[in-house]
């Protein structure tokens, strides 16, 4: 088996796992299980990144999406206890509509994206893209990069201010 | 020596930086510490003053025009031919004005040390004075219209903050709002005017505009110039409280008295006159605009002078005096007496600050502003009375005090025009100025102290040294400042600050001097006859009763507040009535018929407005799909296969 | 030989996006909505990373990856703020069911 076939098999396995776990996220009735499925989904997306030679994204995805964000979400689930105990009806009445719209979006995207005549570039066969990406970030994207840091600080402060208990500013 | 003076221009940025830094330090660092904050403000103003005087002396030694970009902001916005920049301008006019602003600010802050003692918001007060000073300096040192406008608006904001210092008092809050909104009525046309200038000349720099003779180069028609001048002048009308936007200034004394002094002498209202002087090239290019300025100035001046005679509030009298004097400056500028108008701005700053601070000293002791509750203070407050007398003499234009020389210069120019109406108005202004000033002085400082409930006249005593020192300094300045522009001084004011070619040595106009001095003395005599108990021959009370309508008109400031109110109320009523008719006959008839139909439709439609975000989101995404599909179909001209890429 | 091209990744991306949309529209729990939004973010990042790989050029190499990185950073901030808002709402209304939070209804 050539490496191409191996790659294809790996891709189908990972992509399938990604979609299945994503479906599990939205299908499961228990939100804690849904959060666990989310971790699996993000984990799989990380492997897709690796297949795209995006090794830095792979690490970032593992750290932030498969690591930090699920932790936050699990915390949020625990803080809002009612959502854990009350599993009566996790889905709204609009569910059929939602399915219809979701399916419609999928069809539309596939119908547009797949046959579109993309302009392909020559992949230089980089083993890793981290160094190049780092270069790009501090050269081309220096300003957005800095702005992102400001945004994160603002978001951090905003989150603290919002979530703080009222009347607890004496502490 | 010449080198030393020349170096001064390199330090001009300090004039701007020091007050701004003081403001920031006070708010950020020393907010808790009252005395330190106050002294930071005073020292910053004094430092700026020292540099200003250095610059002024350098300018005096060798008048020159210099311009510096202001550091990082030197090229603030720059794309295409659109430039906005901040800079520092040094020329005689700016140098003179900067000294006035810094000196008055420093003296007033020193005075406020005592005057504001124990008041709420002590540090806030000093911080805003520093900001106010900075804003005014930014405006004065501005080399272009853009920076002028920035300073202009900053001055407006600061005046709002300071007039509303006692913002818990509804009247003060209302006065602050009134000052802000009324001046805005002038600011907006000013901004439009600046835009007009820019789109005609692609230039906002004063020096570039004047040195290239852009106004007179025929780029704009005579009518266009007239409109342009009036738009810019509108800003000055608002800020300098000229008719018809004068109504805010008397109310502005709701702020602390030193603030009134600052606003009236050096900062806010001076900005308008300064603007006219600064942009005089524009105005001189349009004789029609100059005529408007002169007429409005004269009208404002004489009306305010008459109203001042009928006021009972000590600060209100001085406030109307300010309007009158500002009108006189505009009058002077309007009739082409550029140096004289600016010179009056200069002398007026000293004696008006003196008058307000003196009034503040009286109010500080008496805890009232009604002159009829005062009286006889001359014996108990000798220094205040003496300095106030100097201020009154200067304001009335009595030889040899400051006001005399500048007023005389304007009078000479007016007399040379040989326009009888202007001459009569000028004489009336002088007469009434003397009358109201000395009415104030006689009523407050002579005779017996009026006995109020729970008030013992014996407890009236002189204010302390911190209040008196600025008064004395200002009194000295109000006495001597005028000699700079006296006709017999060789290299006087008019040889320093002038417009166009260097003027001929002025010859004193004997008729003008006689008329000016005569009417002023007459005013003093009339005031004495009515209000000085020792010379009283006529009772003001009987006279006001006999001519009640006139008195009421003047006492109620010409009913302008009422007129404005009624005008807008009536306007509102008319619009309201029309709208009501339209509403009842046309809209209602139409709507009533439709209402039932709508109700029927709404019965079903309102289920869509569930308030649930998700329902909306479903619609949103469905809409996206529909639009995308439609775009695909129509965007491809119906050839779906091409869109999907199947037919490459 | 390569059997897997841009299209394959884009289909996965589109699938993830559609699943996210479905979750966003069908779930009642606000946290589930948040999770669905995260899935949609991921689908876009994936598409961008795929573009970076297959549409590589020397003028702006790896632009897609840079954008994907920015998305990850922004998503992190977004989650923090969103959860904070959620907690505030929960504290005030004792519910995370979005159909019970009908503040937008007049």
Name its key features:
heterotrimer; A: 171 residues; mainly alpha; 74% helix; globular; C: 106 residues; 73% helix; elongated
Describe the protein's architecture and organization:
- The complex is a heterotrimer of chains A (171), B (648) and C (106).
- Chain A contains seven helices and no strands.
- Chain A has 171 residues and is mainly α.
- The model of chain A has no long low-confidence stretch (mean pLDDT 84).
- With 648 residues, chain B is an all-alpha fold.
- In chain B, strand 2 and strand 3 form a beta hairpin.
- In chain B, helix 9 packs parallel to helix 14.
- The longest helix of chain B has 46 residues.
- The N and C termini of chain B lie far apart (85 Å).
- The model of chain B has no long low-confidence stretch (mean pLDDT 81).
- By secondary structure, chain C is mostly helical.
- Helix content of chain C is 73%, strand content 0%.
- Chain C contains three helices and no strands.
- The interface between A and C is large, with 88 and 78 residues.
How is the secondary structure organized here?
The complex is a heterotrimer of chains A (171), B (648) and C (106).
Chain A: H1 3-27, H2 31-51, H3 55-79, H4 81-85, H5 95-113, H6 130-139, H7 142-163
Helix pairs in contact in A: 1-2, 2-3
Chain B: H1 2-7, H2 13-28, H3 34-61, E1 66-69, E2 77-79, E3 82-84, E4 87-90, H4 92-115, H5 122-140, H6 145-163, H7 170-201, H8 206-211, H9 222-239, H10 248-251, H11 257-265, H12 268-278, H13 280-284, H14 287-309, H15 314-334, H16 338-366, H17 377-380, H18 382-396, H19 402-417, H20 420-445, H21 465-480, H22 493-496, H23 510-531, H24 540-546, H25 548-555, H26 560-605, H27 613-635, H28 640-643
Antiparallel strand pairs in B: 1-4, 2-3
Chain C: H1 6-26, H2 30-54, H3 63-93
Helix pairs in contact in C: 1-2, 2-3
Summarize the structure.
The complex is a heterotrimer of chains A (171), B (648) and C (106). Chain B has 648 residues and is an all-alpha fold.
